[in-house]
């Protein structure tokens, strides 16, 4: 069987859009095997994810046909045949990186890790075990601007589809974020919007919460305020010290980032203002 | 705003079905705001749930147009305007019944409870608090056939859409099940297929499981083997006696049956052989 | 078998406390069948919950023996033989109240509901179905002080062990809270500390969260800042409107308050500053 | 601060046991900071896990004092100072092994992996990246007895505390199990006791379940019937193929085995007939 054709659409809503789109798909002799569609009527926006079987003879022609009929400013993604490429940014904590590199190693990630960049060297030996390049770019004794410029150049050398902040502990400048608009994914060590900012587990312990969580989100200029992709939680109790919470938190951080990457890599996520549409 | 039009389709798959269907919908000036479609290619079956906004001027004409174009044997359900009616069967345990009657009382069930039938009288006073008729039909000193015939007659008097076994503890005969084919929903007190049959909590305790569950399913001739609608679980531990497991189990039974009813009442469930398609 | 003897202790920590306590228990011919002990070394505090089997011949003597040997300011609770009494405060929403009244009706609550007080009359008919007194005390055209004074008098007439705010939507004054110190339990419609204050589901929708939650906590002077008893969450997604979130939220609110009441009624909760020790 | 002293006790129940034990602990100048005790009255068995702070001057004397006073046949474990050693058995699937080796590499496992033994060579390169010896012992063209004898000899060379079956797909003989009684931990790819035996995900797909799970348990002679340590689940739906269920299942298998290892390594698990006491 040939690979399924995937069509992602994000455009202004209009009457008869599903008919228009499905007619074009039928005219290309593709059979729709799974379709998810969502309209936000307040925003007048249309979102769809369509999986088709059948031989796609001419991808460009399908895209052109869709583009011609859909409302202006439609974003259409047909059948991404190339594996997505990721660059991972880290500081010192290994748990999220290790999860990604193991999946990459056994080819269960669905994407390729092009490189890892760290502002400390701690994770270089581990990364290199897997044959992945590790670039150490220190922030020490540099202006933030110079430091970020070095990282941007290094990332750009790989032309990645996404930049993954896998417990990267430096705040990004608006210029950095703008350069990779919609492409940066962060794992935040709390159940946002609870405990924004530093030391969330210390805050959680002081507040005596009974559940902790983690949040994977796209990065925008507002720290910890970008569109949320997915979240999850773990129960804690009065016997947990701050250190125990950090340990439990790492498990949920790892699981949440992994789930978010799966959604993004499988083209299940569309950004809609400060929210996301996730066609699970 | 007028009520949304809901279209449920279950038919043989064919190339271009989504186009056919959405063209018909567009020709009736309806806008598709949420669509879920699923094709089982092994079984060559097509399932869809479509929510439309706009004024549906002629429901019969829409149904006729769909029927004319879809493959033979298509099941099409358009815009059920009447509230569904439920008859609830009980024995002695109150927890599932109480949940249903409270929702009915405050009109958050999305359906109407027409009557409750019990093979014991225990739950009559509670049911009658809510102004719902309670029919006591005892199984004692009757043949199973006579007993079930009495129940069938009582149920038929209400012409319900669904019969809910809310901890009804008598096994139904194939004749009874056939009479209400696809309309009987049961809550089973275990995480099927574990612990089929009687005393599942006793079995679970003996086995030393760490999680218990419950399963809501359509009833077929095979006891505990009908299509599963939804399931859920709760953690237990070594301190739980059988009685504690029963108590914890009642909470999950109640929650699972409530969820299953919501799915069925909102027309989100399609039966597909011994499985269900649930468009959550 | 006689009823188990339950001993709850909250005191300053000291070397050998478990030995002291268990010697006294043994001298009263009781067998410890389940013991949970927790020491907060930073705070130098000792907490224990001990379940004993055997005939407790002289409860007062056991209490006296414990009091004599334990550090000053010890709180000791032995074998509460009387069922706890609850007064429930409501406004207009029924879901938490209904859950409590159904459990009370079938004697699965482990406590007794003495009365319900509402600042609106909406829930009077439902409450009275269960034979529970409903007192309507309106806040309209009264000073907050007068209004609360009326409620306090009505509550005091029942001498309840706990006051349950089951979606009671008025903010309590410090004087009110002080009058019932450590006895008021609230269900907050968010996963605290996220979305403190009003309209949490509106806030949650705008923020695009993928999980919503609820929190049961003791009430202190700081609104929404008292010791958390338990929390739970439900998944939501991009298809949820604010109204859908409110509906999903009610399910989790009901479940969380029910769980918190169970913990409190079974004497599993000790307050420790702004946190709780919960011996689940 | 010195390392806490951990005391695990498993013996016949008797009146005053907690007093006896805590007196001995106090006489050694240790302060009990966390205690969990459980009595199974039907079985007349006593279980406790006690964490103490303070300088343990003479471990042997503490053990001797406890042994002298406790009922015969008591199992007492005081303060295991040596890190536990694990040998991991694998076949071809990497997900559980990788999780264990990453934790071992970053010293977050709380134990040491001494070696990995595989009946295929597939996982040798991965294992060796981490500097852990990999022994390939093929079952091909050998009697089961000879094959297992080779493995036993290899395991015995490491004198491990536990043997972890991390997706090891050969059934063990009673002789093998007897040789490592109470020391073998398996991850079973289903929510036991559902879907015992082979191809559980195929069975789960056919049955149309809405939740799948995994179970970590001690291995006894009855295949898939040993004492359960922990279990967990993941939701699935009608869109999951058998392959999707296998993929989702691997995530839960990995998480469950990891949790079980943590419990065992931290000495939180006591075997009680075919059940476990887990002092979480």
From TrEMBL, chains A, B, C, D:
Q: Which catalysed reactions does the entry list for this protein?
A: (6R)-10-formyltetrahydrofolate + H2O = (6S)-5,6,7,8-tetrahydrofolate + formate + H(+)
The protein's matches in InterPro entries, at most eight in alphabetical order, are given as: ACT-like_dom_sf, ACT_dom, Formyl_transf_N, Formyl_transf_N_sf, PurU, PurU_ACT
Q: Does the keyword section mention RNA-binding?
A: no
Task: Report the Pfam families cross-referenced here.
Answer: Formyl_trans_N
Q: Which GO terms describe its molecular function?
A: formyltetrahydrofolate deformylase activity
Q: What are the EC numbers?
A: 3.5.1.10
Positions annotated as active site in the UniProt record: 224
Read off the SUPFAM superfamilies from this record.
ACT-like, Formyltransferase
- Gene3D superfamilies xref list: 3.30.70.260, Formyl transferase, N-terminal domain
Q: For this entry, list what GO says about its biological process.
A: 'de novo' IMP biosynthetic process; one-carbon metabolic process
Q: Which domain of life is it from?
A: Bacteria
Give the record's pathway: Purine metabolism; IMP biosynthesis via de novo pathway; formate from 10-formyl-5,6,7,8-tetrahydrofolate: step 1/1
PROSITE patterns under this entry? ACT
Indicate the segments forming the ACT domain, all copies: 6-85
Q: What does this protein do?
A: Catalyzes the hydrolysis of 10-formyltetrahydrofolate (formyl-FH4) to formate and tetrahydrofolate (FH4).
Instruction: Identify the HAMAP family for this entry.
Output: PurU
Indicate the family of this protein. Belongs to the PurU family.
Designated name of the protein: Formyltetrahydrofolate deformylase
């Amino acid at each position: 069987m040939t690979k399924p054709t995937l069509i992602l659409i994000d455009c202004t809503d209009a009457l008869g859009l599903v008919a228009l789109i499905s007619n074009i798909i039928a005219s290309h002799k593709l059979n729709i095997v799974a379709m998810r569609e969502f309209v936000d009527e307040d925003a007048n926006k249309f979102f769809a994810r369509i999986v088709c079987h059948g031989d796609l003879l001419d991808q460009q022609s399908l895209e052109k046909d869709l583009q011609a009929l859909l409302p202006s400013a439609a974003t259409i993604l047909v059948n991404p045949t190339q594996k997505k490429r990721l660059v991972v940014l880290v500081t010192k904590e290994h748990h999220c990186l290790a999860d990604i590199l193991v999946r990459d190693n056994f080819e269960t990630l669905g994407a390729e890790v092009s490189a890892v960049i760290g502002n400390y060297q701690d994770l270089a030996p581990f990364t290199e075990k897997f044959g992945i390049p590790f670039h150490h770019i220190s922030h020490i004794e540099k202006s933030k601007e110079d430091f970020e410029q070095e990282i941007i150049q290094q990332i750009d050398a790989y032309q990645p589809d996404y930049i993954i902040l896998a417990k990267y502990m430096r705040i990004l400048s608006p210029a950095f974020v703008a350069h990779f608009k919609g492409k940066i994914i962060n794992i935040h060590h709390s159940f946002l919007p609870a405990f924004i900012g530093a030391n969330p587990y210390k805050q959680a312990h002081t507040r005596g919460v009974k559940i902790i969580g983690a949040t994977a989100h796209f990065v925008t200029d507002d720290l910890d305020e970008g569109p949320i992709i997915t979240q999850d939680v773990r129960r804690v109790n009065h016997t947990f010290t701050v250190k125990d919470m950090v340990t439990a938190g790492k498990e949920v951080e790892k699981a949440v980032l992994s789930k978010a990457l799966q959604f993004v890599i499988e083209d299940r996520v569309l950004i809609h203002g400060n929210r996301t549409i996730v066609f699970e």
